[in-house]
Amino acid sequence: MSTPQTQNAWLATAKGEPSEVLQLDESVPVPKLNCGEVLVKVQATALNPIGYKIMTLFPNFLIKRPYIPEHDLAGIIVDANGTEFQNGDEVFGFIPPQPSLKAHSGTLAQYTRISASHVVRRPINITPTQAAGIPVAALTAYQALFNVAHLKPEQHVFINGGSTSVGAFAIQFAKAIGCNVTVSASGRNEAFVRSLGADGFFDYTTGPLHARLASNPPSSKYHVFFETVGLLDLSLYTHSESYLTPGGTFVSVGAVESKAYEVSYIGKLLWTVFLHPRWLGGTKRTYKMIMVDNKRKDLEIVAQHVRDGKIKPLVDSVFAFENVLKAYERIMTSRATGKVVVRVDPEAE
Ligand SMILES: NC(=O)c1ccc[n+]([C@@H]2O[C@H](COP(=O)([O-])OP(=O)(O)OC[C@H]3O[C@@H](n4cnc5c(N)ncnc54)[C@H](OP(=O)(O)O)[C@@H]3O)[C@@H](O)[C@H]2O)c1
């Protein structure tokens, strides 16, 4: 199968909401490869909050526009370019925000280039549209729990936001090593998080969670508290001495919204979590932030968990390539349960 010179791709043409700035361009050059990169025919991509946050918040000095947005992909290698892969290999992975910003080559396109070290073979027990939603969210969950917070088998973990994509993968990883998992989600998602293995449940809509946890602490305090929503409010951390073990870790995905870039907020965050001395009343618990890292070794581990049936793909909805604006509408409600997927190749399962 020969690769065309040009392709269809969505371009973010200016800073703003997807509905205002995204345009489908039918003559975007298929990218040329650098050493170590492969060309992938994209079967499906999945949206992540960082995609629309970059589009709406990042000024032009941080990202050169127009660019092709998004990061996750499942696809077929059409130019292995002398790497370990063969043409025809079915893979999944993600383009980290940094290189894709510089090179303007995201995954909302029929073809994309990606470092060979950023993809692995797709497990055959899941389809491309299921696989596309795994890399960013599942790696974030895996790395937060195990690389950052060092969660151990049979420990107790609290996941704030068990129905976020990151949280729902985190429940599954923690259950896979026999942990006791308590989560917060809204009542309508209780059945969903319990189906993934959650043992304990709090409905976050019925009152401030930090106050409920502090006034009625668990008999066995949590070893890890994973905040997966991206809350600006730091109350869950500042009250955590009541429900997190002294050696435990509070790990957060970090807030990415316009207020999070204000100097006053950054100052408050730095003071609260890093600078306020414990002997002067600072919170006596460790705070860490996860920044997902495209480590091939971790992606292989995630893929093996999928092959073993320990991690299930989570798909909220699948949109056709032409309906990308509807897909953004869905993810931007912050109400999706699982991944919002875009089927780039109409024939992809
Ligand atoms: N640092 C990193 O490397 C990294 C990587 C990936 C993602 N992230 C961040 O992680 C966050 C989650 O991303 P995602 O893709 O997993 O999100 P998502 O799947 O789009 O999250 C949607 C879910 O969030 C739930 N939710 C909304 N507000 C909530 C609240 N206050 N408490 C509990 N649940 C709430 C909703 O449930 P209800 O409808 O029931 O409320 C819905 O099920 C985002 O802020 C994203 O930017 C960071």
UniProtKB/TrEMBL annotation:
<dbReference type="InterPro" id="IPR050700">
    <property type="entry name" value="YIM1/Zinc_Alcohol_DH_Fams"/>
</dbReference>
<dbReference type="InterPro" id="IPR011032">
    <property type="entry name" value="GroES-like_sf"/>
</dbReference>
<dbReference type="InterPro" id="IPR020843">
    <property type="entry name" value="ER"/>
</dbReference>
<feature type="domain" description="Enoyl reductase (ER)">
    <location>
        <begin position="17"/>
        <end position="342"/>
    </location>
</feature>
<dbReference type="GO" id="GO:0005739">
    <property type="term" value="C:mitochondrion"/>
</dbReference>
<dbReference type="GO" id="GO:0016491">
    <property type="term" value="F:oxidoreductase activity"/>
</dbReference>
<dbReference type="InterPro" id="IPR036291">
    <property type="entry name" value="NAD(P)-bd_dom_sf"/>
</dbReference>
<dbReference type="Pfam" id="PF08240">
    <property type="entry name" value="ADH_N"/>
</dbReference>
<protein>
    <recommendedName>
        <fullName>Enoyl reductase (ER) domain-containing protein</fullName>
    </recommendedName>
</protein>
<dbReference type="Pfam" id="PF13602">
    <property type="entry name" value="ADH_zinc_N_2"/>
</dbReference>
<dbReference type="InterPro" id="IPR013154">
    <property type="entry name" value="ADH-like_N"/>
</dbReference>
